[in-house]
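Quick question, first post here. What does this chain look like in 3D?
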Amino acid sequence: MGESPWYLLQAKNVGHKRRFLDPFWYDQAKLDDNSDYRAVYGVKGHETYFEIRRPDGRVMTPDCMAAWGMHKEFRFWANAEGDPKAWPLKPGQTMAATASIVAPVKMQRRNVMGPADARIPPNATPAERESYAELWKQYKGELSEGGRANDYSLEPKVLYPGYRILECYFFSKPGIYRMKAVMDETHRPTPLSAEEEIQDKRKNLFRSEPPEAIQKEIREKWANMSLQQMEQRKKRRALEDKWAREDPGFYVESNVVEVEVAP
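> Answer (accepted):
Ran it through. Tokens below.
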């Protein structure tokens, strides 16, 4: 319990059109942006993301700020180099997400006090070592208070060539977790009514009936919408409908993988 699983993510184009893989495939840091919960802030939860269910069936939400620290002092992993321009997936082609590597130690942050990296450099002075130890103590305390735990230690990192470590998720309770990858390149048209927006939230964000407070907020927003705002939405929707006719996009789910977390 507390350790992060490793995974191998591959995609094969079985169609007849070239497809473009989103930035998550060469940079796992994009996971936070792709996750569905960001839709509540107006960012659509599209592209590649994981749906991970806890032992009680609830969907987990990635928390990269908690995992990496306020300034990514605790992000000790990076991705092997991948050229974004080389990621169109041609028909019949199979491609894997870039593997994880140990990130180089960052010595300084610009215009911000404190270390850029929580790992203690070999040439650190006794005073610096003490400040690093305090940083670790504070960070682990914050994770403990939030009921989260992951393997953040100073021990040498073990690599699994070709595989990527799953960041930003905290497997803090024993049991069976069920995980699948989702590639969502379908079109989510701009809503033209309060009911369309509520339906969008129902289908793509909550995957169940949205809370009454959310529905009320949406209806109030639409009741106060100006004619100019409505016209802008109609123009955007017309473009989206045109794009959808030219290429309807696709939605793919991987097989469900069970991850057992022991006490």
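Helices lie at 31-34, 64-68, 126-145, 194-206, 212-223, 227-246.
The chain is about 30% helix and 15% strand.
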